[in-house]
Amino acid sequence: xxxxxxxxxxxxxxxxxxxxxxxxxxxxxxxxxxxxxxxxxxxxxxxxxxxxxxxxxxxxxxxxxxxxxxxxxxxxxxxxxxxxxxxxxxxxxxxxxxxxxxxxxxxxxxxxxxxxxxxxxxxxxxxxxxxxxxxxxxxxxxxxxxxxxxxxxxxxxxxxxxxxxxxxxxxxxxxxxxxxxxxxxxxxxxxxxxxxxxxxxxxxxxxxxxxxxxxxxxxxxxxxxxxxxxxxxxxxxxxxxxxxxxxxxxxxxxxxxxxxxxxxxxxxxxxxxxxxxxxxxxxxxxxxxxxxxxxxxxxxxxxxxxxxxxxxxxxxxxxxxxxxxxxxxxxxxxxxxxxxxxxxxxxxxxxxxxxxxxxxxxxxxxxxxxxxxxxxxxxxxxxxxxxxxxxxxxxxxxxxxxxxxxxxxxxxxxxxxxxxxxxxxxxxxxx
Length: 431
What we know:
The protein is 24% helix and 19% strand. By secondary structure, the protein is α/β, with parallel strands linked by helices.
């Protein structure tokens, strides 16, 4: 254990290129381009005319007018424990998630959903009864949902004794994925509605989803219906309020290996701009400052031209936020699992998701033991004004180890990650 922890102290991010293929059901070319160089270049080094709108990319069937997630249930921020005669008002409680083994987590990827009347599920359309069975199997195997963006930023929290799992969804927004009832809740006849109801019945499973939207190609409802954009905007806003966060899957769902590099930028930008327009249309522009910048590659295919790769990796969202991660997809037979962001093999440009078919669910249930569970270490009467002080947090962890209250391992505490052993406590993320 001590040798493993010592090794962690010198870890530096190392980009590994993952080999991925796309589901055969999506009917994409069998050869998937894997870039040999993924270093981003400054946007100002690229020719400005490459961001112009492609004349042939607009979907004529669509006429458009125009962090992150819920923190409920997280133990990193708990009610202040002070009282009139007790500790100062700034003192409170903090719980660290402790990993005695290096965590690795699976990422499942869904698409659309079909009712019980459908004969079977496919790689891109899951029957709602099958989805319900998936969730129950995952829950019974000890998995709990965590935030994609939180994990990438070093928030390695998961309920004690549970295994972390990320669920993503592509090709939003179809109304079989998310539709709100008159009361403002997710319709239980939609995929996200089923997930929401399951999370309410099983709070320790949680509700965190990463939704990758293709807003110019996947129609939410009949465009001739006058208020369909309002309903879409309200559904998106509901997601942000409850932990189902929208990211970028490109406006027209293009094959990035088959379009001109300038069209790649246009597709990304148009999708971002329309998302913001929808939020403004329903009076939720308060969400816009918290929007992130993560791509899911349509068909899991990279651009073929080096300039296309450079443009993609240099993309900044309308608020100027640089690209944070790129998501790919493959079947469980070629699965790779997401390491923590401090690991040597963590690569934000090639994050592999697993097609959420029955084979994937069975594998995760039968092999759950390969995914470590977490323990918690509690700190009471902690000065909350010093949470950003890494030396202070390291001292608190050191004291907990010395008193035998907490184990050696990797600590996720106050938005920071430390290694802790008898030889010392050291910050490893962020550097």
